[in-house]
Specification:
Strand order of the largest sheet of chain A: 3-4-5-6-7
Oligomer: heterodimer
Largest interface: A-B, 30 and 36 residues
Number of strands of chain B: 2
Order of helices and strands of chain A: HEEHHEEEEHE
Strand content of chain A: 25-35%
Radius of gyration of chain B: 16 Å
Helix content of chain B: over 70%
Largest sheet of chain A: 5 strands, antiparallel
Distance between the termini of chain A: 63 Å
């Protein structure tokens, strides 16, 4: 096909009665965006948009790195634990536990259930996730 | 069926919504900096796969078609899409 043929191939698509349901596009975009956000969060590229709890993210020290990411099942919920440590070695480690329903899978928004703050450095080291879950934590 | 029940609306097909969203995301990415701009740009480029595949499956040149489509949208023609039927007309003439 030469360029002249291509000119006519792009046309007003409503005039041709080529339509699709809105839900197809919105659902595809929604699921794709959630997946991208999840991958970026796991890869520690995007940590500032934590399930809409931006006040938590604003609280977090700027120079933090995600050191562990564990997933376990507890009380019928799938828990994902993300631990953030400060690079400055002075402020306390941060631990986020995220829970999501097993049935709805990872596509549902992960909601933060607990936040551990102010624990001394090393208090969470060399512990399994099961032990971490039993550490006295400030629930909010 | 589900679409009929939950959200009763029809939009233009033929790759028009994808190109539209892709252009808006590209514009937004240019206002950002660093890794955020890169991520938004990558998402916008990924959206262009849909019209590209549509053009490929219609036996058209995807690069020329998607460029033309983006050009039409840049000129404000939001309803511009890939017309697959036009190809049949050309075949009929031959």
């Amino acid at each position: 096909l030469n360029q002249a043929d291509c000119q006519g191939i792009i046309s007003n698509i409503l005039a041709e009665n080529v339509v699709q349901p809105l839900l197809v596009s919105t659902s595809a975009l929604e699921l794709a965006t959630e997946t991208v956000a999840l991958i970026l969060r796991i890869d520690d590229i995007q940590v500032s948009c934590l399930s809409g709890r931006s006040e938590d993210a604003a609280d977090m020290p700027v120079h933090t790195i995600m050191t562990t990411c564990s997933i376990m099942q507890l009380h019928g919920k799938l828990l994902m634990a993300l631990r953030f440590e400060s690079c400055s070695q002075t402020s306390a480690p941060w631990l986020w536990l995220y829970a999501t329903d097993v049935c709805s899978g990872l596509s549902s928004p992960l909601t933060a259930v607990f936040r551990v703050k102010g624990l001394p450095m090393g208090a969470l080291k060399h512990r399994t996730l099961d032990e971490i879950c039993r550490v006295p934590i400030a629930s909010d | 069926m589900l679409c009929e029940l939950t959200r009763r609306a029809l939009i233009a097909g033929g790759g028009a919504p994808e190109i539209h969203v892709s252009r808006l995301l590209t514009q937004y990415a240019q206002t950002l900096k660093g890794k955020e701009a890169y991520c938004f740009q990558a998402f916008a480029e990924a959206l262009e796969i849909i019209p590209t595949t549509l053009a490929e499956n219609a036996g058209l040149n995807p690069i020329a078609i998607v460029t033309e489509l983006r050009n039409k949208h840049a000129k404000g023609d939001k309803l511009a899409g890939i017309n697959v039927k036009k190809v049949h007309l050309i075949e009929d003439e031959v």
